[in-house]
Amino acid sequence: MLYPQHFIDELKSRADLIRIIEPYAPLKKRGANWMGCCPFHQEKTPSFSVNPAKGFYKCFGCGKGGSAFNFVMEMEGLNFPEAIRRVAELSGVPLPEPIDDKQFQKTKKRREEQKKLSDQIIELNRIALEFWEHHLQENNAHSKAAREYLERRRISPETQKAFRIGFAPDSWDALLTLLKEKGADAQLIEQSGLVSKNEEKNRIYDRFRGRIIFPVLDINGRPIAFGARILSQGEPKYLNSPETPAYVKGEHLYGLFQNKEEIRRKKFAILVEGYLDLIALYQHGIRNAAASLGTAFTPEQSKLLGRFARKVVVNYDGDKAGVKAARRAIETLLLDDFEIKVLILPDGADPDDFLKANGAESYNNLRGQAFPFLQFVLENAVRERNIALPKAKAEAIEDILPVLSAVKNPIQKRESFDQAMNFLRVDDQILRRDLWKNLKLGARLEKETIKQQVARATQAKMTVAEQRLLELLIYDSELRAEILPQIDEHDIEALATASVFRALNVIHQNGLEVTTKNLLELVEGDDLASDFVPVLLMSEPAREADEAIDEVLTEAENCLAALRAMAISRRILEISQELVFAEQNQDLELRDALVNEQIELARMKRNLENRNFDDRSY
Length: 618
What we know:
five-stranded antiparallel beta sheet, alpha+beta, five-stranded mixed beta sheet
């Protein structure tokens, strides 16, 4: 069974040799290599050396050595095709379809041509980068302004050198002229992404002009693409390389070349969004980070990161776009079985701004308090949603199901599901069973199906207190004037008849009459309320027109006290569930605040039950 040579070569370069070997031989880093006792023969003094950058191992005792394929063939008794499958499995790389000899040769030739073209473009990138690095240090006004900009951003000369930051002169053809002088082919220059073309004038010109250059280096430190920030006014503010034979978007991580060894040593990575966030972390001594280059985090980036660590702290911006991007990254990382935490900095700050204002120690303290991915997902699912309402609860469930589906470990998947259902207060066992069944089987529930199931399971039952209070209010404008101002949204939001109470309030505030038409228009879309309104209007007035209000007022206040007590009980239950997360995350400040709120609510509830109705602070 044959596999394309390009796939074997790529798998060999992507295989995490340390991760493959360590289950058989514990290793310790020494310089560029890792050392340990040889798994192939007995020895007390380590003579087994692994070079992950070059992808080979060698024992200086018994002489055995080779690549990841040789290692699994020797240790697990596999033939070469079996070794390819085993290394692919360990590396999380999908296998291509086997091919016949003729197809193999054709594909091999095409891949060799693509690799040759890629190498040629990388050589042009190398020439361009050296030119830009040199230009940044030149003694002219533009280069000086570029250095001053980097100084204002607090990017030291040492960091500039580590990331090979340069400056492209504000010229239409400075680089183009240089590449031609170096003998570069015109067609190759066009394919490189270093130039742009004006189709109307059929003119080629430098793509990057008057910009700070941030090169994207591959895992071996070769310049494969560039990001560039304009120095003066103009648009776009940031300009990136297009895709080329040397560069495919979403397959590389910025800063991984500089930080890969520290990521491996610390066994976790910090994932950020942009160039400057990563550079700020690096400059503050935090050198186990990688950036997703401003694009949505991809499965290819996830697998690349997995070669160096299996734990990730996602630290994207705290704005809506950053939260959305973090959510997508979590789903992608879960599919590769990463252990994930999320760090959202105060006031939605990005890492660059936060580090400049607060320093590395404050950042590391917050990073140590990063919370598990599930808490982040759940809290964002209920943000700006009132899950006491069936529609909002259905939307929240629909929101979190893709994340739960991405969890690989079956035990963790079940635990995460149960935590999510408890957090969202999904108590109906039939609904929980149906959701879990579909989640476990990997089936996708339609949005409308979820909404219908949640509506069925969470439809509130009308209580005696709310029905009686509405009967008292419906024909008594004087009583409505006394009671409606006392009703808080918290008192009614979870009631089956909440929309009827809101309708009566609108009628009262606008001086309208209570009629079937007015009520039905105001509760439109609420089927239960629409069915109840005609029944309510058939009830008899609770008092005669000339009868004193005292007795019905007392009864109405008793009903409202009962509804308020129920609302407080629901909030106390919510707090109990929130306390579980606070304890799990060791968030003592949040835990104490929740406990204090729970104590205060319990006091208010006791007062209501004792009919101390003067306490209306809830």
